[in-house]
């Protein structure tokens, strides 16, 4: 499955659609402005909230939390001992981890679980400016979670760059 995200619209407080490979609306990112922390919801086409995403308050390092139905699903932060700033760890609620590495700010990176590729984020496939694709490689992967991970990692990398 491949999804298309319009990068120039990526911002908290703004709403935008993520489209599937046919150009149909698949997910709505509903940004929540006027909050103390960066917050948004990932919704399906019927408006049901699939995933809540927010910045963790009072963390030593910038951290994003992904929740589903009020339960923590994942915590995302930059790897502590990474020489490259483009390496993030996604700690899942079940104790397992996803590894995100590559050129995050260039929108060229991969999401792996235990050395197995789950998703690839890239601008190379698309000819539309300011757009990147999220290609879900495994059929049994959770597309909403992987899209949320991609959006969070990009947000954290941009925030880190601006600081």
TrEMBL record:
Organism of derivation: Streptomyces gilvifuscus
Name of the protein this chain belongs to: LURP-one-related family protein
Similarity field: Belongs to the LOR family.
The organism's place on the tree of life at top rank: Bacteria
Any matching Pfam family: LOR
């Amino acid at each position: 499955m491949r999804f298309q995200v319009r990068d120039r619209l990526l911002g908290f407080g703004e709403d935008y659609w993520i489209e599937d490979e046919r150009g149909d609306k698949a997910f709505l990112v509903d940004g929540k402005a006027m909050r103390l922390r960066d917050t948004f919801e990932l919704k399906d086409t019927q408006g049901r909230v699939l995933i809540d995403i927010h910045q963790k308050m009072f963390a030593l390092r910038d951290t994003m939390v992904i929740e589903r139905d009020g339960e923590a699903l994942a915590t995302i932060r930059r790897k502590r001992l990474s020489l490259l700033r483009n390496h993030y760890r996604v700690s899942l609620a079940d104790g397992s981890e996803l590894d995100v590495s590559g050129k995050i700010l260039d929108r060229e990176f991969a999401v792996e679980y235990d050395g197995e590729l789950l998703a690839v984020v890239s601008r190379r496939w698309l000819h539309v400016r300011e757009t990147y694709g999220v290609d879900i490689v495994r059929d049994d992967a959770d597309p909403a979670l992987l899209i949320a991970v991609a959006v969070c990692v990009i947000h954290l990398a941009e925030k880190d760059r601006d600081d």
